[in-house]
């Protein structure tokens, strides 16, 4: 099972000064900042997924790349641009989520293929159009919603054009067909047609909103359909777009899934209310110590005169000092909670995290983590504060996911003849 990490230009500054909360004076972001595979001992993913919409921008707005970065990606190629170790794979994608509201994709097959080939991707997903909706009872044709039928037909047409173009142009890119659907039957039919077009890899899109049981229903329908194929016929490998669900990975693998991509373990580090710091079997809330001048509520209170700026700064410093002195000893937990509580009050926090903090401090998981970042930065990784700490915690989460993937006992895919 391979895990691809979707790139959003998430880097950290290796020389960031945590004590002063300052960047090195002569930092040049694109030269000095590092990707997860550069700060961790071992790349925490088997591949990266780069979306054309993230690079080029889309109808919904600008991409994450500056014009200069876009040009460098094209000039240097994806491997050198990301300074990838030779064992990390690259997969290109359109970013169909970014134009889901459009009637038709604002990008042509030729543009998609040019993007993949010019940047030197190992593999690329055909141009597609996401179907937002799931109804397991809706048939393949009428009365299923016309928009769903049209998007599926268009996705299949574009996939045909895509694989034909890769063959006509003789490119070395590994073509991956995009399958869209709204039910087990429609996904199974899409997969069958893509296999008939010659695809050896197929990415299943539009499944992010689905419940795990619904994803499994679709995979089972695909698997059932494949059993009617002749003896010796080889099924294409399946990729789940945007799906982790690690607890179901073994079942997914038994039904033909060989890869997936997801940002969730990274993003939970700073987007989730509770599951910020992951360990093998559970997760912890990170210790929120916002910067006085980076917290809008606190800033307003200071300007309104209800909070004294010097008191706020003193409370912030007291928390950081106590946390940095924390050795993990049980008798030190109460002191840390007291200063965290005092700063929570000054910040005017709408809710208290103190119970969750007690659990985090008691477990002190950063003391037991063997990842390069926790070993180097200790408790700083567990502090919710600014992009440098938050992204490092996200990278740590990726390394935990990678270890969990490695420890899964994935069953061999059942053969079609069973
Ligand atoms: Zn770690």
Q: Number of DSSP strands?
A: 12
- Beta-strand content bin: 5-15%
Order of helices and strands: EHHEHHHEHEHEHEHEHEHEEEHHHHHEH
Q: Mind summarizing the main beta sheet?
A: 8 strands, parallel, barrel
Main sheet: strand order = 1-2-3-4-5-6-7-8
Account of the protein in words:
This is tRNA-guanine transglycosylase DpdA. The chain has 418 residues and is an alpha/beta fold. The chain has helices at 29-32, 36-39, 52-56, 67-76, 78-81, 109-119, 146-169, 184-197, 212-226, 249-254, 264-271, 296-304, 309-325, 333-346, 354-363, 372-377, 386-407, and strands at residues 2-6, 47-51, 89-93, 123-125, 174-179, 201-204, 237-240, 257-261, 277-278, 283-284, 287-288, 383-384. Helix 9 (212-226) links the parallel strand 6 (201-204) and strand 7 (237-240). The model is unreliable at 414-418 (pLDDT under 50). The protein binds zinc ion. The site of zinc ion (ZN) has 5 residues, from helix 16.
Q: Which features would summarize this protein structure in a list?
A:
alpha/beta, eight-stranded parallel beta barrel, disordered C terminus, binds zinc ion
Describe this structure in a few short sentences:
This is tRNA-guanine transglycosylase DpdA. The protein has 418 residues and is α/β, with parallel strands linked by helices.
What's the helix and strand layout?
Layout: E1 2-6, H1 29-32, H2 36-39, E2 47-51, H3 52-56, H4 67-76, H5 78-81, E3 89-93, H6 109-119, E4 123-125, H7 146-169, E5 174-179, H8 184-197, E6 201-204, H9 212-226, E7 237-240, H10 249-254, E8 257-261, H11 264-271, E9 277-278, E10 283-284, E11 287-288, H12 296-304, H13 309-325, H14 333-346, H15 354-363, H16 372-377, E12 383-384, H17 386-407
Helix pairs in contact: 7-8, 8-9, 11-17, 13-14, 14-15
The protein binds zinc ion.
């Amino acid at each position: 099972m391979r895990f691809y990490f979707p790139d959003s230009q998430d880097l950290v500054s290796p020389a960031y000064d945590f004590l002063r909360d300052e960047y090195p004076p002569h930092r040049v972001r694109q030269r000095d900042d590092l990707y997860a595979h550069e700060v961790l001992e071992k790349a925490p993913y088997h591949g990266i997924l780069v979306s054309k919409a993230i690079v080029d921008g889309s109808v919904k707005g600008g991409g994450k790349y500056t014009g200069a970065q876009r040009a460098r990606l094209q000039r240097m190629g994806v491997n050198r641009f990301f300074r990838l170790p030779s064992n990390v794979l690259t997969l290109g994608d359109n970013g169909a989520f970014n134009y889901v509201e459009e009637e038709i994709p604002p990008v042509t097959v030729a543009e998609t293929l040019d993007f993949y080939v010019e940047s030197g991707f190992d593999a690329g997903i055909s141009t597609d159009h996401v179907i937002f909706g799931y109804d397991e009872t809706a048939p393949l044709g009428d009365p299923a919603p016309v928009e769903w039928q049209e998007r599926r037909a268009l996705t299949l047409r574009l996939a045909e054009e895509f694989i034909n173009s890769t063959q006509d142009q003789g490119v070395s890119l590994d073509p991956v067909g995009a399958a869209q659907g709204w039910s087990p039957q429609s996904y199974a039919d899409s997969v069958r047609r893509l296999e008939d077009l010659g695809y050896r890899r197929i990415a299943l899109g539009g499944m992010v909103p689905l419940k795990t049981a619904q994803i499994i229903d679709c995979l089972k329908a695909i698997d059932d359909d494949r059993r009617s194929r002749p003896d010796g016929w080889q099924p294409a490998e399946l990729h789940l777009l945007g799906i982790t669900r690690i607890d179901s990975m073994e079942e997914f693998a038994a039904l033909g899934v060989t890869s997936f991509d997801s940002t969730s373990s990274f993003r939970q580090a700073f987007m989730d209310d509770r599951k910020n710091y992951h360990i093998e079997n559970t997760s912890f809330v990170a210790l929120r110590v916002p910067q006085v001048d980076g917290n809008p509520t606190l800033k307003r209170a200071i300007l309104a005169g209800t909070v004294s700026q010097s008191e706020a700064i003193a409370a912030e410093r007291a928390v950081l000092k106590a946390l940095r002195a924390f050795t993990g000893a049980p008798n030190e937990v109460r002191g840390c909670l007291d200063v965290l509580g005092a700063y929570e009050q000054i910040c005017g926090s709408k809710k208290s995290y103190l119970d969750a903090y007690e659990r985090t401090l008691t477990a002190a998981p950063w003391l037991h983590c063997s990842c390069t970042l926790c070993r180097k930065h200790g408790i700083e990784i567990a502090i919710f504060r600014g992009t440098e700490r938050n992204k490092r915690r996200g990278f740590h989460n990726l390394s935990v996911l990678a270890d969990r993937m490695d420890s899964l006992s994935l069953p061999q895919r059942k053969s079609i003849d069973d």
